[in-house]
Amino acid sequence: MTEKPKLEDVAKLAGVSPTTVSRVLNNRGAISDKTRQRVNEAIEQLNYHPNEIARSLFVSKTHFIGLIFPTTGHPFYGEIVFHIENILSEKNYKVLICNTMDQADKETKYLNMLLANQVDGMIVGAHNVGIDTYQRAHLPIVAIDRKVSDTITVISSDNYQGGRIAAEELLRQGRTKTIHINSAPQHEAPSSYQRRKGYEDVLAEHGLPFKTYTVELPFDTETKQQMLSSILDEHPDLDGMFLSDDITAAIALSMVRNRKKDIFIIGYDGTETVTTCLPELTTVVQPIRAMAQLAVDLLLKEINNDFTDIKKNYMLPVKLRRGEQL
Amino acid sequence: MTEKPKLEDVAKLAGVSPTTVSRVLNNRGAISDKTRQRVNEAIEQLNYHPNEIARSLFVSKTHFIGLIFPTTGHPFYGEIVFHIENILSEKNYKVLICNTMDQADKETKYLNMLLANQVDGMIVGAHNVGIDTYQRAHLPIVAIDRKVSDTITVISSDNYQGGRIAAEELLRQGRTKTIHINSAPQHEAPSSYQRRKGYEDVLAEHGLPFKTYTVELPFDTETKQQMLSSILDEHPDLDGMFLSDDITAAIALSMVRNRKKDIFIIGYDGTETVTTCLPELTTVVQPIRAMAQLAVDLLLKEINNDFTDIKKNYMLPVKLRRGEQL
DNA sequence: ATGAAAGCGCTAACAA
DNA sequence: TTGTTAGCGCTTTCAT
To answer: What is the pTM of this model?
Structure first.
């Protein structure tokens, strides 16, 4: 027997019907100890492993969850994907991972792929397709950090507070000529808007000037460098910057050091990786693990048709992490 | 019709048999333009999407690939997972992601889960279960950076050269009292051994002293800090360190800066993230994208039963990236 | 406590 | 060119 054994083979070897084997496997119905034992022996002997795909087809539940994110190569997404998968696997769900690289066509393709593979639900952290595209899925979906929708649950960190906290810290550091660089994904990510609003509100309240650059941030470092470089050229008297994520902040930090400028930099995200690599960076920390936990909790509630206490919009608190002095 | 439409529904609406619909979907056999059109209209009208799970069951091929790695939260793994998924999705394969967190029991559980879900193959970058555990799977498997095996293809970067390159750079920087900290995963990862050997050989060739610490590196920063701290205490005259990965190197770098020591640090991996965050770090760069590409190429060859030109062991070249001056 | 039969949604012989 | 039939590996009524 070199072929993969199936349930029927086990049944034959144990001298029982397939039904009985199935019952043993799933602990259902009443089975005599004798038969249970014989079945288990046969399973052992054949090194039998049930085919989950066949099972999924029958019960029309796969226990697959689709994750759509820009790229696990970015620390924020790499970490949140890790936490989500980790929490889901505890609950016996399996994760299909999709990296859209911010390309709308990929996102659409992935969405269809996940539907075709009968995922029980999805968690989406990518931003290039209108959220209405997802509504058509008629599936439990939780989104992270995107436009609020009537039908899809959205989780985000408190971006407005994040913007305020950053601006307040710049003031506390005595910086008065600051700018904010704001990466706006194609489809109106509310996170960017809220962060910007928070930052601008604080400065306005203090009667200070501010300038916000809204740019489409590419993933590659070089383009970011050029962009930051020309912004620095335009503002020779700049003394503070609030960047939309830590990686961009890291680039700005090196650049400012190279130019020997005294510009105070604040980032956003506060991932483990960046915190470890750049302990001197001040940043607004998102509660990544809590966001992952909440996303999973809400998704599983929806999957189990428990819609009690499910709001459409969740906001988790952020906090400032001050960089360590060098 | 609020239920998900199936192939049969399409057939009925189009007034043809299920077979015909299947043929249209898969572009197989000869179909008249008229029927093809009618079928396509019915598909459109019902917003029908084929059930891949049912299809998988029938053809006993899922196009699922399992990825077993320590954690996508670590930049090296996050990036390699990204590349692997990216390349695989181009070939219409789907990726199930598993984060073992270096726990053997999780790794075993994931392995069984992947087998139960009928993956067509696996790429493994985790290190806590003996490789023989995988042999039993009787499945195409490619391993990254682990013990060479007779039966499983292993890809690694040239760790011995990596060790040599690092040691040579330390010498070039005029460092003569150096140590190497070597994170040895539980089950004899050859990568650690080879890097160490390369480092030690070079120093021995120059008649220089060296010291290698082989420690089980935990994931958390604090424990690493404590460990590094006591090593630094033991060696007040140290002037060079070669760390087994960039994150640990980053921690060492901050620590050395805090202590105002002149210790030259060399890391290992050269991920985009760390390169961006710490451009001043000198490191041995692994060809991450090339490793991902090769892993996928070999895996798909094995899946397609093409074993020509498949060796059991592949080594890709590393290079030194010198940190930028601050 | 156990088994026979039907079927989850799809595809591939084999016929016509 | 199209349809009929059987079956991928499993589970679940419904009998007994």
So the answer is: 0.96
